[in-house]
Design a protein that fits this description.
about 170 residues; Ferritin; elongated
């Protein structure tokens, strides 16, 4: 790693990012890693708690979400180490309301997806114009998280309802 004292730029493995931005990016990536690990546990746990006639497709969907959350956690951890830092061993918040109605489970999932989306949006804002690779990573995951939010929102609607379960918040 070379440090150019005149510009304050850290050159490491082809990266041009100032140290303050790099440190903040690592912090956000570790938060994403923790949130995605929590998502893996969340979806796996709730897949056990689904009962009733629609159990099989809902459990299958939750297992897919758990697998995808783990892939997202791995990607965040890989970026942390690529930036020369140590990935977090922590796990994000694990909500357990002990409400196992599908609606309750989906509302908790919606909250988790939105909280994770916020972290990806923070990352994009931080690195925009500074690191193309991390910027594209953030954009891709914002897209995927917004798809998840939309999917869960649709699942929470009553059949025939066209209006969103929760109105999107515009910034």
């Amino acid at each position: 790693m070379l440090n150019s004292s005149a510009s304050g730029i850290i050159l490491s493995r082809g990266r041009n990012m100032n140290e303050q931005t790099r440190a903040k990016a690592v912090e956000i990536l570790n938060k994403i890693l923790e949130m995605e690990l929590a998502g893996t546990i969340h979806y796996t746990h709730y897949s056990f708690m689904v009962f009733g006639y629609n159990r099989i497709p809902i459990v299958s969907w939750m297992e897919q979400q758990a697998t995808e959350s783990m892939a997202h956690a791995r990607a965040a951890g890989e970026l942390v180490t690529q930036l020369g830092a140590h990935p977090s061993l922590a796990i994000g918040p694990l909500l357990e309301t002990h409400k196992h109605d599908i609606g309750d489970i989906l509302r908790e999932s919606l909250g988790h997806e939105k909280a994770t989306l916020v972290e990806y949006e923070k990352l994009l804002k931080l690195v925009e114009g500074e690191d193309v690779m991390i910027e594209e990573y953030a954009r891709e995951h914002i897209y995927l998280e917004r798809l998840h939010v939309g999917e869960v929102d649709k699942m929470l609607r009553k059949p025939g309802d066209i209006e969103a379960f929760e109105k999107p918040v515009r910034k």
